[in-house]
């Protein structure tokens, strides 16, 4: 059976939580330090749903092997056509096309919803994520130097953007 991309349901939250916490503990893809709990993730999911923001999962035989979402880039009215996205594959599932499926779906949904610009905030040392985004046509737009701190070092945040029209 092949991996399907579909809207997330409450039953997917455990799988999403595992991916979130893995990235918090083992990567600079997320600049948080402490693992999240069920209550936090449920609130995040509820906020996404109430804001009409998509959360999609990569489902492989009922197992969540990736997820993606987008939401507001900033909360000023002038940014209402710009969104910021996140895409993550589960440990052991990176490099298998799951991110491609997820981001393709998020771009499709964003275009359907009339958004103009999609932003990605990426750790500037994450060459794989940068190359991944470039394959979709994202371009580097700027780096905020030493704006994050994790694992005992300063991190640079790279912004990339894709114009959706």
Automatic annotation (TrEMBL):
Residue ranges occupied by any N-acetyltransferase domain in the UniProt entry: 3-165
Keyword Acyltransferase applies: yes
Keyword Acyltransferase: yes
Superkingdom in the source lineage: Bacteria
Signal peptide range in chain numbering: none
Record key words, sorted: Acyltransferase, Transferase
Protein name: N-acetyltransferase family protein
Species of the source: Flavobacterium arundinis
């Amino acid at each position: 059976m092949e991996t399907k991309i579909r809207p997330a349901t409450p039953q997917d939250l455990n799988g999403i939580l595992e991916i979130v916490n893995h990235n918090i503990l083992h990567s600079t893809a997320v600049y948080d330090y402490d693992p999240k709990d069920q209550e936090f993730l449920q609130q995040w999911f509820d906020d996404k749903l109430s804001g009409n923001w998509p959360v999609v999962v990569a489902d492989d035989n009922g197992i969540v092997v990736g997820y993606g979402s987008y939401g507001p880039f900033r909360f000023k009215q002038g940014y209402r056509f710009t969104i910021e996205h996140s895409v993550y594959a589960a440990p052991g599932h990176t490099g298998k096309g799951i991110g491609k499926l997820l981001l393709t779906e998020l771009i499709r949904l964003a275009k359907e919803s009339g958004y103009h610009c999609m932003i990605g905030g990426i750790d500037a040392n994450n060459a794989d994520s940068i190359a991944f985004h470039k394959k979709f046509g994202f371009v580097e737009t700027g780096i905020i130097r030493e704006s994050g701190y994790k694992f005992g070092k300063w991190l640079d945040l790279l912004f990339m953007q894709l114009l959706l029209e």
